[in-house]
Amino acid sequence: MPATSRSATSRGGATKVRRKEKKNVNHGHAHIMCTFNNTIVSVTDVSGNVIAWASSGQVGFKGSRKSTPYAAQMTAEAAARRSMEHGMRKVEVFVKGPGSGRETAIRSLTQAGLEVASISDVSPTPHNGCRPPKRRRV
User: Fold this and answer.
1) DSSP the chain
2) What pLDDT is stored for residue 26 in this prediction?
3) Whole-angstrom Cα distance, residue 17 to residue 79?
4) Residues 6+ positions from 96 with CB-CB distance below 8 Å
5) CB proximity list for 33: less than 8 A, separation 6 or greater
6) Once rounded to an integer, what is the mean pLDDT over residues 31-40?
7) What is the pTM of this model?
8) Which domains occur in the chain, in start order?
């Protein structure tokens, strides 16, 4: 087999900076996923295209601090601020998961200036699927 050589060319030159386009959306959905380890907030338009998102790790928390209600509050505030830059004013909230920051995240969305139209719990419930982990003995 003949050896193929790849030339190591560098991009050298000016790199293009991708400019974020400002979407003008005033009504949308806020999807809050609270797990036992993390909280992720995604703000979308009505058709489901993500406008802004934030997670506890992105806000600056690491390890077990990501699962606290305070981390969920800061995460929801960051996502709300970014979505309000695109003109978001009113959201319908969909909460998923058993995490500790569910109520705190919803409360901080309203404190950030978003009007909450409705709150829905869309946590997946098993139809007797996987066996749960064993009970903790403390």
Assistant:
1) -PPP--------SPPPPPPPP-----EEEEEEEE-SS-EEEEEEETT--EEEEEEHHHHT--GGGGGSHHHHHHHHHHHHHHHHTTT--EEEEEEES--TTHHHHHHHHHHHT-EEEEEEE-----SS-SPPPPPP--
2) 85
3) 23
4) 31, 32, 33, 34, 121, 122, 123, 124
5) 39, 40, 41, 42, 96, 97, 99
6) 96
7) 0.79
8) 32-121 (3.30.420.80)
Angle at 57 between CA 56 and CA 58, to 5 degrees: 90
- 58 within 8 A of 120, measured Cβ to Cβ: no
Rounded Cα distance between 115 and 104, Å, is 15
Calpha distance 24→83 (Å, rounded): 10
Per-residue model confidence (pLDDT) at position 2 = 58
Half-sphere exposure at residue 36, Cβ-oriented, CA atoms within 13 angstroms: 0
pLDDT digits (tens, 9 = 90+) for 78-116: 999 999 999 999 999 999 999 899 999 999 999 999 999
Q: How far apart are CA 52 and CA 50, in angstroms?
A: 6
Query: How far apart, in whole angstroms, are the C-alpha atoms of residue 43 and residue 28?
Result: 7
